[in-house]
Amino acid sequence: MVGTPEEVLAYLQQVYPDTVISVIVWTRSEVRDVAERHGFTLTDEEADSVLYDLAHNENHEYGENEQSAYGYICALKNAEPENFICP
Question: How far is Cα of residue 61 from the mean position of the Cα atoms in its chain?
Answer without folding.
Answer: 15
